[in-house]
Amino acid sequence: MGLSSALASAMSGLRANQAALSIVSSNVANSQTPGYVVQTPNQIEVTTGDFGSTAMTTGVSRELDSYVLNQLRTETGGSGYADQMANILKQLQNVYGTPGNSGTLETALNKFTTALQALSTSSGASSAQTVVLGAAQALAQQLNVTTKGIQSLRSNVEQDLGNSARAANAAMQQIADINTRLQGLSPNDPSAATLMDQRDQAINTLSKYVDVRVTTDGSNQTNIYTTTGIQLVGAGLASEFSFASAGALSATSLYNIDPAKSGVGAFNIKLPNGSQVDVVANNVVSSGQIAADLKLRDQTLVQAQDQIDQLAATMASALSDKTTAGSTVTGPPAGFDLDLAGAAPGNTVNITYTDTATNTQRQITLVNVTDPAALPLQNATNANPMRIGVNFSDGMGAIASALNTALSGTHLSFSAAPAPATATTLRVNDDNSGLAKVNSASTTKTISSLTSGNPQLPLFTDGGQALYTGAITASGSQMTGLAGRIAVNTQLVSDPSRLSVYNTSPVTPAGDTTRSDYLYSQLTNAVFSYSPQTGLGSANQPFTGSVSNYLQQFLSVQANAATQATQLQQGQSVVVSTLQAKFDSTSSVNLDSEMSNLIQLQNAYAANAHVMSVVQSMMNTLLQAQV
Predict the structure, then answer these.
(1) Which of 137, 346, 453, 476 could cysteine-pair with 503, CB 3.0–4.6 Å?
(2) CA 82/CA 88 separation, integer angstroms
(3) Is the pLDDT of residue 42 over 80?
(4) pTM score, whole prediction
(5) Binning pLDDT at 50, 70 and 90, where does residue 5 land?
């Protein structure tokens, strides 16, 4: 090797050392910078004809494990989802309160039933009547308060959706801007490495709110999609979430795919191509905090409201509804006559029959629906009972025709009962084919009078005055939000004696406990069927039990859901921490390694400097020899 070649090699070594020292210095200086990925110099050996081999620094490399990074982002989204679910469900448990403590539904219901029992024991004493009335009012108020708590949580989630949308938009725009700044820069450019660190941080932030799938093309442009394929970020372009809050939500503020009918904030995304997509209707997001908020607002907390609305509705109906068995019609064909007179909207006819071909017992509930816009009623697959809506005030001919059409496959037959039956009597029997047998039929009507001569009492009403009958209209069911409106009948508040006096002609004798006995039995012993919308049972096998059984069941389900959400949150936290540690092991700055690299670079610098010194000395010797 000639002196010139040696000098060139030494000088290139010094330049390479200087570049490497700059990178080590940057690594050390950014050891505590969030998102900074450790850098290493890219150095190559260059061979030239005149100067031999020299070292050249071509840029830097970021030391990261892309596979672990993608896993970390996926689990970060899962963690954002789990954190929000656990947080809100924990708050929901606070709304319900601690079982056994005052200010809970369980305690309020127990005090009410205990007061009714005491009313019977005291033979209808006025003081006992006052206690029952107070306990009933306390129970109604507890249902009102629980509704407010649930709807407050929904409103908070609604607000959080707006905050999350803004945070996600900021992250997506930052990623798109960095993509633009990276155009034309080599991935090995030190300034590009800094921008890529910032871009990765923005992607990590975005993954907290939505699920992301990240790809990077040959020009170092990152494209981001949700797992459902919706593009969030492209080359220099970003999608944008838009959220129009509906403000404070109520029990009747429900999501509808038709924006004109929806009672909650519209959540959409405007794609880079300019098109707009309904995030909820198209299931755009499946993980992250936004997905959790949407599920909480439109499903989880709505179901929690359904559960207490069902409780309120069952209590009101249990005390005020009177069921009358149909009159037997001997066959063939055999069946029953049912008097529909006086049925209020929402009142029902209940039919049980046997499909003799399969020996399967089935149930049908005919619901009095006076709003034609609410028809037909929707049934889940294999719903039992099947619900059919019909206007009981239509003539028997029209009612029978509608039912024969709707239930054509059941081998049941409906008709107007012949004289001497009244014009409001409906007959149901088998079609004489031998393929069906009507086992029982009954009508259920709401008693509106406090002194009807029946033990039934409209103790709880909708808003204090309106009867609760379960009416269904185009705008929804009367049961929706009932727990927030339920109150004690104002007529009863004015005259608590009606808790015992159920007839005025003749007057109920003093000490008669028929009504209080009935009310107590209905709330403690009677068995009812509950809607699958409550999350208990199924359409084919609804949950059945007493009012207290139902209350304990849904509170237990909610408690288990909160516990599972907390466990999932803790599990996700461990997974994210583990992946973060694994990612940091290769990508974060290790000061010990950097110090070791620094010593090696100092030694290499000294070696190259010594070579230059030796070359200089030899050149001086040669020059002196020529003089």
Answers:
(1) 453
(2) 10
(3) no
(4) 0.88
(5) low
